[in-house]
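Sorry to interrupt, but I need a hand with the structure work. It will help me judge whether the discrete encoding reads sensibly. Write everything out right here, beneath this request:
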Amino acid sequence: MLKGASNLAKIAVIASIDPNPAMLKVPLKIFYFLNLVLLILMSDAGFKASLILAEIAPTTTPNETPSTQEYPQPQKDQITSTPTIAPPENIQPEPVLTPSPETKPASNNLTDSTTFIIGLNVGNRNVNPGSLVRGKVTDTEAIDFKNWLIPYEAVLEALKFTSKVISDNEVELRSPFKIVRLNLNQIRNDPELGLVLSIKEIKDIFGIEAKFDSREYAIVFDVPEVRNSTTNRRERQPVILEGLPKISAPNLTVSQVEQRVNLSGTDSRSRTEGSNLTNQGTLSAVGTILDSSWFVGINQPNLTDNQTWQLSELQILRQTDKSDYYFGSQPTFWRSRSGNDFWGFTTIQRQGFSPFPIYGSGGANPTQRLQPEGIAATVIGRAEPGTLARLVSNIYSRDVIAEQLVDASGTYRFDNVPVGRQIGTNYQVLLYPGGLLSAQPRIEDARFRILPEQLPAGTSARVISGGWQRRLDTNDFLGEFRQFNAGIVQRWGLTQDLTVGVGGVYDSSFNGLGEIFYQPSGSPFRAVFSGLIGNNIDVNVDAIWDDYPNFYARVSSDLNSIRYNLDWQISPQFRFLTNGTSDQGANFNIQYSAGGANSSTLAIVSVNTDRQLSWSLAQSLDKLYFTHRGNTVSTFSQLSYQLNRYQSLFLNYQTLSSSNNANLLTAYWSYRSPTRTRYGENLWQTELGYRMGSRGSGIYATTGTSILPGILLQARYEGVSLTSDQGRFSIQLVSSLGFQQGISPGDRRLERLRTEGGLLVRPFYDRNSNGKRDRNEEIYTDNSEFLIVNNEVVKPGELDIKKDGFVLRLPPGTYRVELEPAGFPPDFQPSVNAFAVEAVAGSYTPIIIPLQPSYTVGGVVTDAEGKPLAGARVESISTTSKSSVISVTNSAGVYYLEQLRQGTYELKVNGKSVPNTITINAQSETLQELNLKLP
């Protein structure tokens, strides 16, 4: 955006000094005064009424349940740093925080102050081109700047504060950098501006410095940078789709095809032995059919012989929040007694809950879609009053689950928070002193334990499935469908702790199915019981005590065996681990770990019930690393030194006593390129070295590259190995092609499209303004910061930038897509700025955006005597579409009509037609001058 375009008033001052029409050639942009007109017309009573209407008491959230229970005022030495989890209880409402005596409104010392228009900037970015303020200013200097008055609403809008009513006079203000409560009775009322805040009050209440910039003619707020900040999920703006032009997803596509090839072989130094070559591969394809995704997978044991190819998978999948439908190959929701794969139909119907999102995870499993997304629990901790407590899933992304301003009790509490299963079991609480989000937070650990299959209380789910078992033989492409199987189960969330399921399964014979999922609130214990009862009985029990990292134990049992795992932290350095089965023995491990600023040690010793011993050791000291592992048969040792972030030296030594005491020494250099693909792969990686051992000596080399779009190539050669003197080589090639909107390189994440879709955004220069892309009209890819999806700005890192457009991956659904005009060239703008776009799994919905030439007409409006008219409303009306563009003249009578398209426009000034008209065609200049003289 143009830096000088931040303020209308600055232009007015310049124009009043020199109203020469030649100034119109300066490429400055003037924004409209609609907000100013509204403020001037708004009375004091009307302002208060609109404030009340805008701040209707919000719906009570789980964290704001009022109660009468009292907590004692904590002393400083009582405040702990470890949050705990407890059953939900009520807590007292938070007290109202009012400004301290230092922040009470001071008297306004301005004399002869006036109201005038000035811009509001946050740093170098203009956020309000013209706001009416009260103060006193010369051309270059602000007089008594600290007492300037700015409308309360303009301050909130500029600093991105949202307001929530706490009581009749108190509101809670939230922004990306600060959360504070404010008493509206403490805010003065200006007879012309309404509720106002002074520059000093803004600093005292919000901690925001401000200055006057005469060159920009703006008030510039110095807002602190907030690292890794995200908005709270509960306060996102509603997504409005009504009235937007709709773009539907394609009904049938072949979106991507991927071929994987693996070549391997050996060469012998003996003349009596020949060389051999094996070639294998897999062929996959994905697309969309009738709002569903389809996927095909083919195994290729011998690439050159298609008689050996086999159909491994064929699935059509449709997933929504309420129901899922699976056609083709799929796993059963019950423990099948047959080892063959299952092909048929499955549907899942959910009542009262949404499933855990697995979009983009690849293969689809019906049992995963029975896991609810939201789980209710309580996390409690202590902190100083006034501290902002944020419950987050990850300290790196800091995606906020819930937050609370700690009240006078010194206790924060998150009740019934829908946390989502993507978080796992480990959480952090970020504590910001004084509610200041720009400060470094104190980080505390919190734990949240969940049982994946447990449903929220009062919800239910039904699964119905039927199909055939498939038997696949060698050289059989389709296989043989033999045995019919079917099943049905209904699950109910009876309480917060208990979920039960009842159903039946036909698998060779009919069996009754029963399920129990139990997890007491606030307890580390959880258990699952399931059983098939018919001609045979198959009962499974899975019990877990999860108090990790202190203690973790799991016992699983069926009628044939018992399996267990145990992990016990004896001390900060020592852990005891064991696992085993009742019929195959057990393993016992002792683990030691220690670490310092630049060093660490991890040692493990294991023994099993057959008295077989194994061990491992890993040590690091600055840039030097040593690992060793072994057992009674073989050992492996590695010493490495990191030259820099991208290069290392390695020395490996291996032994194998079962093969005539074989040994092998390998020394090599490793390089990883600094540049990575969006999937985290290095563009280049290489290892080069030499091997010596009991089988001989030879070169060792590997290389890999993903520099070519849609292609991954990896190769490996070893002249000798631990067990053979034969040279071995292998080559892996992955090639992916996209077939939407022409043929293009694929993204090599083909399986993600089975459960995920997205947008293919294609802005292009529509030079002839016909609304379609012609052969000579190129795709615009110079800037990617123009996309807003569901009111969230899409960051460049979230887009896959291709030559034919931008790809954004999204779960299936309908999205509001907006285009930021500042992200496009000033003289080429989109004809439509907002859409409702449908995304389905299996493909990317194309969004074709014609960037049509944009024209600006400006000039000076004068009266019959030639004097400039300030505040005149100039309107251009298209004779074809009847759309209009409006501009209000400044004090010099200057107006600008921007983003005009080709066509003819009628002009009106203050609602009255003028004889002048505007005609714009392909030969017109992008900036034109037209002075208007009124009779």
User: Anything to note?
Assistant: The CA atoms of residues 326 and 707 lie 37 Å apart.
